[in-house]
Design brief:
The chain is mainly alpha-helical. The protein is about 50% helix and about 5% strand. It folds into 2 domains: about 120 residues, no CATH class; about 45 residues, no CATH class. The chain has 5 helices and 2 strands. Strands 1-2 form a two-stranded antiparallel ribbon. Strand 1 and strand 2 form a beta hairpin. Helix 2 crosses helix 4 and helix 4 packs antiparallel against helix 5. It is elongated, with a radius of gyration of 23 Å.
């Protein structure tokens, strides 16, 4: 029952207790007193041995949600850094001769290459995906990682 109640909490609350969403001793939540348990988080093997199959799947989904939130935060931060860098570059271009055309070209480059996610092989844009970052291009069937856009040698949908 303890694990069930923990995995139903919001991701932010779970991350406060353990950044990876692992199962901690219930006494770990005590308000900082001397009776607070400081034991290491339980291993997934120990958690699995004491839960029903469906509860353990919920526990794993909860941990996966935390990992996905970390990746999304990292991507958001990286995108903000790229945008700031491109804004600075655009301002530098604007201050030089022929600034209007250079600024237009810089804006176009930002929109087409940075803000639009696309296949690394054929540059077909993709809007959204669900779950795993391993994708196959709808046009050329290239296998690649949607996070870093690196090619994947083995298709994520193959029989292997």
């Amino acid at each position: 029952m303890y694990v069930k109640s923990e995995i139903e909490k919001p991701v932010g609350e779970i991350k406060k207790r353990d950044p990876e969403g692992r199962c901690l001793c219930p006494r770990n939540t005590a308000s900082g007193g001397s009776d607070r348990c400081t034991a290491a988080p339980l291993s997934d093997k120990d958690v699995a041995a004491n839960l029903s199959h469906t509860t353990f799947e919920g526990y794993l989904r909860s941990r996966a949600g935390i990992r996905e939130a970390k990746v999304a935060d990292a991507m958001r931060k990286e995108m903000e850094e790229w945008i700031l860098l491109e804004k600075k570059r655009a301002l530098d271009l604007a201050s030089s001769a022929g600034s209007t055309e250079k600024l237009r070209a810089a804006k176009e480059q930002v929109v087409e290459t940075i803000l639009t996610l696309s296949c690394p092989r054929c540059h077909q844009a993709f809007v959204d995906f669900d779950g795993c970052f391993a994708l196959n291009c709808g046009r050329c069937r290239a296998a690649f990682c949607a996070y870093c856009l690196a090619s994947i040698s083995q298709s994520p949908y193959s029989a292997d």
